[in-house]
Write a structure and sequence with these properties.
about 25% helix; Quinone Oxidoreductase, Chain A, domain 1; about 25% strand; alpha/beta; Rossmann fold
């Protein structure tokens, strides 16, 4: 099979021919139809010691099952599926709750930047007939945002501000609306993605500049009850603390890999709740699939480009800097 292979930081991925995967006892092999490029894919290729040379990235994938391992009865060849990119023991309390990330044997898997990929059967979910493979590849980032928003038990009548207009930010705004927030706004450093945000259902967009605090206060009538940080750069936690009301909640969903700092007293005097969100559960995936299946398909608008394997490496590299895209997907067979 063809696959985009990582060798070392500072070098481009290389499209190579690798052996087709063979399923283990509790695994399936799927023919990858679509795989989204995540910011974490790019970041992982930039740091030493994060990836093993020869790794194949890509964890936002969907496709068709072509081979099923032993003792698997709920999945069959021909099924169109997506999967959590996690393998786990399957027996512990975390696994039984569908929280594979917290299993002591949990491993992050990928392999979607290829023509075929392996997935654990327990992590694999069927797609309804109404959904496309593009929809299936969106399930993973949508589930990331859902897991973050679910940290607040009740959003009814809350004013919610999302910091960041990337895929996770737009998905967080989507879930806040669906869960009954009174008003939802997105703030970003520029208006570059405003039209895209509006296409996904965002009604209120604020540029995060020196005038943003007043603009946000004018919009909501006060500072928001909840701020969801979806940028993951140094300074965004502190900015989110500044933008939330006293006794409000800040949810950190952005994955910042650099050291960061904020002034605890600012959060202290506001008596804030500061929550951190990581990954997702099986139920987050199911709920995301169900939302799309119900016709809530606004987030399709975040897909700005689909490329074949011939264009993939250069496209991947182009996403390291400022670019016009939101969600780019690989179509390995194009």
């Amino acid at each position: 099979m063809k696959a985009a292979v990582f060798h070392e930081p500072g070098q481009k991925l290389v499209v190579e021919s690798l052996p087709d995967p063979v399923p283990g006892e509790n695994q399936i092999v799927l023919k990858v139809g679509r795989c989204g490029i995540c910011g974490s894919d790019i970041h992982m290729t930039e740091s030493h010691g994060v990836l093993t040379p020869g790794s194949v990235l890509g964890h936002e994938f969907a496709g068709e099952i072509i081979e099923v391992g032993k003792n698997i009865t709920h999945l069959h060849t021909g099924d169109r599926v997506t999967a959590l990119p996690l393998s786990a023991c399957g027996h512990c309390a975390s696994c039984k709750a569908g929280e594979f990330f917290w299993c002591k044997q949990s491993k992050f898997t990928g392999g979607g930047f290829a023509e075929y990929a392996l997935a654990d059967a327990a992590s694999t979910l069927k797609l309804p007939d109404i959904l496309s493979l593009e929809d299936g590849a969106l399930v993973e980032p949508i589930a990331v945002a859902l897991h973050a928003v679910r940290l607040v038990e009740k959003l009814d009548d809350a004013n919610v501000l999302v910091v960041g207009a990337g895929p996770i930010g737009l998905a967080a705004a989507y879930w806040a609306r669906r869960k009954g927030a009174a008003k939802v706004a997105v703030t970003a450093a520029s208006r570059r993605r405003q039209a895209l945000a509006e296409a996904t259902g965002v009604e209120h967009f604020v540029v995060n500049n020196s005038d943003a605090t007043q603009a946000i206060t004018d919009l909501f009538g006060s500072l928001p009850d909840i701020v969801v940080e979806c940028v993951g750069l140094p300074g965004t936690i502190e900015r989110s603390i500044e933008l939330v009301r006293p006794r409000g909640t800040v949810i950190v969903a952005g994955a910042c890999v650099a050291p960061d700092r904020f002034t605890p007293l600012t959060a202290l005097v506001k008596e804030l709740r500061l929550l951190f969100s990581i990954m997702y559960t099986v139920d987050d995936f199911r709920t995301s699939i169900d939302a799309l299946d119900s016709g809530a398909l606004e987030l399709r608008a975040m897909i700005t480009r689909i490329v074949g394997m011939d264009e993939f490496v250069e496209t991947f590299e182009s996403l390291r800097g400022s670019n016009p895209h939101c969600k780019v997907m690989l179509s390995p067979w194009a």
